[in-house]
Design a protein that fits this description.
Alpha-lytic protease prodomain-like, Alpha-Beta Plaits, 69% helix, elongated
Length: 299
């Protein structure tokens, strides 16, 4: 868990640093070229910086251990942050799409100057952003952190506007065309919108205590079915909070065995589930095999 927290924090800190560097580089490029495409990517990087700072705060808060007020930890902060990020990305996609359409309809667009400086800045931004995205994807794959995943999507979407800026600057310098980047921007907006909706739905499901992925549930069932000492199981319930999955399971054991023996079987099953799914928090209740529900137990 500590290693996962360090990986998540490293991705958050790197995201803030990259956004800050890109803001500085694009400010310089905008001063050199006066390009609308560079101005658009500068505004996007400035928003990235604000969102990355918020994401880093959420990652740090979610990493806090459980306490008296939050017995199950603080990982739901990941879902709240991811939901906010997805809404932000969706709005950004809409703004980009509207700006691209308006630019396509505008006959008075001013062509940029010193396109070479702008192209160099955009290439630098692509290289730095790609490195960040690759690291974020690796961290998200290991830890399952939704904030890192959402931030990775946003920066991946940034690659397309930067490529569009290069194409637009080249087209302006070579052919005097000022509208090429608008088409690329519309594609980027669509990509961002689809990804934002996917991440937003995942975060919303977690906040509403939706069960874990069906494949994980089947995997847990398979582990329980094959575990030695068990005569059966029932009432398997799961819920997701951030990158954590909480698992409740009732197992049926030989009622004549000692408490020590029953505890050993339950503890062994818990270790087996966590070994297969390290992000799980597992709580196991032990029932004697064949026990009937008490009439006073309404649920």
């Amino acid at each position: 868990m500590a290693d996962a927290n360090r990986l998540n924090l490293s991705a958050g800190v790197l995201s803030v640093c990259v956004a800050l560097i890109l803001v500085i580089v694009k400010l310089w490029a905008l001063g050199q070229t006066g390009s609308l495409a560079i101005a658009a990517t500068l505004a996007d990087s400035a928003m990235d910086l604000m969102m990355s700072l918020g994401g880093l705060a959420a990652i740090a808060y979610a990493a806090k251990p459980a306490d008296d007020d939050h017995n199950f930890g603080h990982t739901s902060a990941e879902d709240l942050a991811a939901l906010g990020q997805s809404l932000f990305i969706l709005i950004s996609a809409g703004v980009i799409a509207v700006a691209a359409i308006l630019r396509l309809l505008d006959d008075t667009v001013t062509l940029p100057e010193r396109e070479g400086a702008g192209i160099a800045a955009a290439i630098f931004a692509i290289i730095v952003t790609l490195g960040l995205v690759l690291w974020q994807r690796r961290v998200a794959r290991i830890t399952g952190n939704k904030v890192v995943k959402a931030d990775s999507l946003h920066y991946l979407g940034d690659l397309i506007p930067n490529v569009g800026a290069i194409i637009a600057l080249f087209a302006s310098a070579r052919f005097g065309l000022g509208y090429v980047d608008s088409v690329v921007a519309l594609g980027a907006a669509a990509l961002l919108a689809v990804g934002a909706l996917r991440i937003g739905r995942s975060a919303w499901d977690a906040l509403m205590d939706r069960q874990a992925d069906p494949a994980m549930i089947k995997g847990i069932e398979a582990i329980a079915s094959a575990h030695p000492g068990l005569h059966g199981y029932h009432d398997l319930k799961t819920r997701v909070a951030g990158s954590r999955v909480f698992v409740n399971l009732h197992i049926e054991l030989d009622g004549t065995q000692t408490l020590d023996a029953a505890h050993a079987i339950g503890a062994s099953l818990r270790r087996a589930i966590i070994a297969a799914y390290p992000r799980c928090d597992v709580l196991i209740h032990k029932d004697p095999v064949g026990v009937k529900k008490h009439p006073d137990d309404t649920r």
